[in-house]
Design brief:
The complex is a heterodimer. Chain A is an all-alpha fold. Chain A has a domain of 202 residues: Orthogonal Bundle (MetI-like fold), CATH 1.10.3720. Chain A is built from 14 helices and two strands; from the N terminus they run ααααααααααααββαα. In chain A, strands 1-2 form a two-stranded antiparallel sheet. In chain A, a hairpin with a 2-residue loop joins β1 and β2. The two termini of chain A are 22 Å apart. By secondary structure, chain B is an all-alpha fold. Chain B has a domain of 191 residues: Orthogonal Bundle (MetI-like fold), CATH 1.10.3720.10. In chain B, 70% of the residues lie in helices and 3% in strands. A two-stranded antiparallel sheet of chain B has the order 1-2. In chain B, β1 and β2 form a beta hairpin. The longest helix of chain B has 32 residues. Chain B is globular and about 80 Å long. Chain B starts with a helix and ends with a helix.
Chain lengths: 293, 297
């Protein structure tokens, strides 16, 4: 459609305003992370006119950054050295572990669902999809008892298993769609040449789908990184991921907003970097492979 | 030919489908079918604090379930939230997608910025809005007071009439970009011919949208509704961190109610019963939708 120049200008300005509104909560949250105690509670709220400080980050991670915008702090309240750093490590271990497990299981399953004709294939896809519909709470309650009986409570391994399960429908359906993109004729001609299914998978299909597998892994990582309910339910004191531990900053005596915002901000950065890496596959990923960009 | 190759050969062979599927099937059986059966078993038992163990109670939990006013209230909240947020996100998402569907400089950057909200942990989103909606120092409360929409005596999240809307806002903020991205992908893949023909015939922008864009976007909209709908129905994180269900029962979702009964009130059997109800409702609605809207994977 032909549009006049002024129409385009109006549209552009409107787009910037709307996206700005969506960006505002993130921006404001980050300013809180850089604010000193009192400034968080000022009325009118300080949106631009605040004195940035690294104090919250220093308290949360128990390290003195030294370059804290001009001020040095010696006493670090909170929980002593490296206060929240182990929780960040917990998050990384769980996200990486569950992603690896989910990808390992689903590349095999997706290959079969994409390439082989067997009875009930359609039902398999439906079954995988309906596990995605289960409310997490309906899985978490029995898992709580199962984990207690098998000693999986409070272990990285237990949470890795449950996060891999949570990501399995996404990974299987998404990888299937990436495998579907690779023409079947390649497999078939290789079979005629005497190659086994496994050899085709390893030498042909897997290398060709590398980009899709990487994108799937990134999405699995993000969903494990941001997951809340399972970690809340299946851990007690031994380990916690960042979203869960941040929620414990809300206490009856008041909320440590600055610390919480600092932790939250630090937790968002890896996810932001990852999501910008997979922009091209994002729509396909978010729709479990059913829409292609 | 694949049909025959999958059938040929030895039982233990990668030429057959089942060795490929085995790890996934094992995982799904252990972690979804077993919990489902366990939930059903649990719903016929209840924890007896004095005996410190589970005792068989027959259909008591199921009878309680249907007579429980708080359960009906939270089912009502869940369905209301599901419908209202879905409609807001659909309409707003479509409007923004139409706005951003352009190749003008900067639009790609704006689309990228919009995706950032999708990767914020929902629990942290909840806390972001908890802070902004704080009656004393929240920037959003302050702004609404300035333009006269709110008085200082109505804290958003502690007033029954507004609490759920405070939660709705967090969800709309975080997941409207989800709709925008999906709709944008749909809009960009539309064929140009119908538009050219319609413009030649002098159709108005509104007519073009209703008669051409919407019908062509059918499948895209159906997929977006399905995926978003599933997540809306089982929403937990926002209410858990923002309101814990209060004030009263105005922000209890089924997921939160089941979780609290199980882990806060140690009613293991009853919590399992509520979660089963939620499970059945979502499976029925979602599969019905897939059938009616003919969504294919």
């Amino acid at each position: 459609m032909v549009r006049s120049k002024s129409q385009r200008m109006v549209r552009m300005i409107l787009a910037w305003i709307v996206v700005g509104l969506f960006f505002f909560p993130l921006y404001y949250w980050m300013t809180v992370a850089f604010k000193e105690g009192r400034e968080i509670f000022d009325i009118p709220p300080r949106v631009f006119n605040f004195t940035p400080t690294m104090k919250n980050f220093e308290e949360v991670f128990g390290i003195s950054f030294g370059f804290g915008f001009g001020e040095q702090r010696e006493v670090l309240p909170g929980g002593g050295n490296w206060y929240m750093t182990p929780r960040l490590l917990d998050s990384i271990i769980i996200a990486v572990g569950s992603t690896a497990l989910a990808i390992a299981i689903s590349t095999f399953a997706s290959y079969a669902l994409s390439r082989m004709d067997f009875r009930g294939r359609h039902h398999f896809v439906g079954w995988v999809l309906s596990t995605r519909m289960m409310p997490p709470v309906a899985v978490a309650i029995p898992m709580f008892f199962m984990f207690r009986d098998f000693g999986l409570m409070d272990t990285h391994f237990g949470i890795i298993l449950i996060h891999a399960l949570m990501n399995l429908p996404l990974a299987v359906l998404l990888l299937k769609s990436f495998f579907d993109d690779i023409p079947r004729e390649i497999d078939e001609s290789a079979i005629i040449d005497g190659a086994s299914r496994f050899l085709i998978f390893r030498r042909v299909v897997f290398p060709m789908a590398k980009g899709g597998i990487a994108a799937t892994a990134v999405l699995c990582f993000i969903f494990s990184w941001t997951e809340f309910l399972f970690v809340l339910t299946l851990t007690q004191t031994g380990l916690k991921t960042v979203p869960v531990v941040a929620s414990t900053f809300v206490t009856s005596t008041g909320t440590a907003w600055g610390n919480m915002a600092a932790l939250g901000t630090a937790a968002m950065i890896p996810a932001f970097i990852f999501i910008l890496l997979v922009q091209k596959q994002l729509v396909r990923g978010l729709t479990l492979g059913s829409l292609k960009q | 030919m694949s049909q025959s190759s999958a059938m040929q050969g030895r039982f233990w062979s990668f030429d057959r489908a089942w060795p490929w599927l085995l790890p996934m099937v094992a995982m799904l059986l252990v972690f979804t079918v077993y919990p489902l059966l366990y939930n059903i078993w649990l719903s016929f038992h209840e924890y007896a604090p004095l005996k410190r163990r589970l005792v068989y109670v027959g259909f008591e939990n199921w009878q309680t379930l249907f007579a429980d006013a708080r359960m009906w209230a939270s089912l009502g909240v869940t369905l209301f939230y599901f419908v209202v947020v879905l409609i807001i996100q659909l309409v707003l998402g479509m409007a923004l997608a139409l706005l951003l569907d352009s190749d003008d400089p900067g639009m790609g950057f704006l689309r990228g910025v919009l995706t950032l909200t999708l990767v914020v942990p929902p629990a942290i989103t909840g806390m972001m809005f908890l802070l902004m909606e704080d009656p004393e120092f929240g920037v959003l409360s302050w702004f609404l007071e300035q333009i006269g929409l709110l008085t200082s005596s109505t804290p958003i999240l502690a007033t029954p009439a507004t609490a759920l809307w405070g939660v709705v806002l967090a969800d709309v903020w975080q997941w409207t970009p989800f709709m925008v991205l999906i709709f944008l992908a749909g809009l960009r893949s539309l064929p140009p011919e119908p538009y050219e023909a319609a413009t030649l015939d002098g159709a108005s922008a509104m007519q073009i949208f209703r008669r051409i864009t919407l019908p062509l976007m059918n499948k895209v909209i159906a997929v977006a509704v399905l995926i978003r709908g599933i997540d809306l129905f089982r929403m937990f994180d926002y209410v858990f961190v923002m309101t814990s269900g209060g004030p009263g029962t105005t922000t209890y979702t089924l997921s939160l109610y089941a979780w609290q009964q199980t882990f806060s009130f140690i009613k293991w059997g009853y919590g399992a019963t509520i979660s089963l109800l939620a499970l059945v409702i979502i499976l029925v609605i979602a599969n019905l939708f897939i059938y009616i809207a003919k969504v294919r994977w």
